[in-house]
């Protein structure tokens, strides 16, 4: 199953995340199928590749809870249903 989830990177105590599409059985920091965005919790900065995310969601990818909340803030699910 393909999941949309966060991949951790950055220095200790200065973490950032990439939003990636990965197989659900792969390691958290393993090689992703596709990188779909960026999230920095310290500055609350988010950059999303919305067309690629919508394509993955229509193909059946399941977002994790954290990624789902980020996508809801960006109103991505409205574009999937349209």
Helix/strand layout:
Layout lengths: L1 E10 L2 E10 L10 E7 L4 E4 L1 H9 L3 E2 L1 H9 L2 H6 L1
Parallel strand pairs: 1-5
Antiparallel strand pairs: 1-2, 2-3, 3-4
Account of the 3D structure:
The protein is α+β, with helices and mostly antiparallel strands and 82 residues long. It has one domain (2-81): S16 Ribosomal Protein, Chain: A, CATH 3.30.1320.10. 29% of the residues lie in helices and 40% in strands. The chain contains three helices and five strands. A five-stranded mixed sheet has the order 4-3-2-1-5. The relative contact order is 0.23.
User: What string, H for helix and E for strand, traces the elements in order?
Assistant: EEEEHEHH
Indicate the structural class: alpha+beta
| Oligomeric description of these chains | single chain
CATH superfamily: Ribosomal protein S16
Name of the CATH first level: Alpha Beta
Task: Quote the CATH topology.
Answer: S16 Ribosomal Protein, Chain: A
Uncertain stretches: none
Radius of gyration: 12 Å
Number of domains: 1
Strand content: 35-45%
CATH architecture: 2-Layer Sandwich
- What is the helix fraction of residues, given as a range? 25-40%
Query: How far apart are the first and last residues' alpha carbons, in Å?
Result: 24 Å
Q: Enumerate the strands of the largest sheet in spatial order, edge to edge or round the barrel.
A: 4-3-2-1-5
Using the alpha-carbon principal axes, give the shape: globular
User: Whole-number average pLDDT?
Assistant: 91
- Largest sheet properties: 5 strands, mixed
| Number of helical stretches of at least 4 residues | 3
Strand tally is 5
């Amino acid at each position: 199953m393909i999941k949309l989830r966060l991949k951790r990177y950055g220095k200790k105590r200065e973490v950032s995340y990439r939003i990636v599409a990965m197989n659900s059985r792969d390691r958290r920091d393993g090689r992703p199928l596709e990188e779909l965005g960026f999230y920095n919790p310290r500055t609350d900065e988010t950059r999303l590749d919305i067309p690629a995310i919508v394509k993955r969601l229509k193909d059946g990818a399941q977002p994790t809870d954290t990624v789902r909340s980020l996508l809801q803030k960006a109103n991505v699910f409205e574009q999937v249903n349209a």
